[in-house]
């Protein structure tokens, strides 16, 4: 009898004006699967038991009507699939979101479309869960006033895979460890991926384009970023990959293209007697390939292709000690040495200096002309006949002469 009533309720849910979806959730036994037919289900809902809600066809819309969070999950073992979730509130202090999950494990949100919501998916103290194949956009606000598309807070050992964050603000991973972040897309956001106080995360094969910052790692450790494609970080300070006070990081096999700053290194590695590894990356056609800020030594920078950049290396202060990094076997397209024995290693080191005439490093007014023919000519003249002794930054003792393959 219960099954018959439940089937009838499911059939007529879209036709009823009250929040019958919440009633169906409340009435469903633990572990039930609610298969929703197409229709608009108005009103916010709370899920406080193990439950699955699936759109059994396209066109299933859960509309929060512009008030608060649309779906609040306060239980483990909850699954949402094939839904469109829209119409959250717009209060930042309340973190109004399409989906909010808290103090839960083994939840899943897959194949959902989230739009017109301040925050997309907010995860607080969530573990061993899957967020996959969702498309997330924020409300039509200015970029800084949008909410985060995906937010992990004290959330560990989750899989974040094949999601698209478009016209959102940030994807943040704060105080969260052991997460796999793989094959996601971020476009027209602020920080397409932002880490803080996070460790042992794996960032793999993501694509980030037309954001202010591609990936920024802060106050974190023991993380690998590999196979990511970062293109066209926007603005005069647009950044491909940023490292601020991070330790034991591996940045490998990434491509950073058309950014103002390719890889930004600030006081990293942070812990003494440790290293970061920056290897096998392609750093191409950026304004600055490598930007060092503050004390930054003991990085191992090897086997990278550094080509087509206006400046290969920028050191914006004398405290960076770039010469204390291990820099070797990189390809520099402006290397001027020879390879007489044909071993593809330059016969002389590739030495990099900073010239006092490079005014645009510190002067934003001059930087307006950065890359112009006039500045390029001044740069050439400064290297040809510098007014003062140039500052030695570092040398690559074994520069690669040709790119093989």
From TrEMBL:
The keyword tRNA-binding does not apply. Keywords: Signal. Residues 1-23 form the signal peptide. Gene3D superfamilies: Single-stranded right-handed beta-helix, Pectin lyase-like. The keyword Aminoacyl-tRNA synthetase does not apply. Residues 138-337 form the Periplasmic copper-binding protein NosD beta helix domain. This is Nitrous oxide reductase family maturation protein NosD. The gene is nosD.
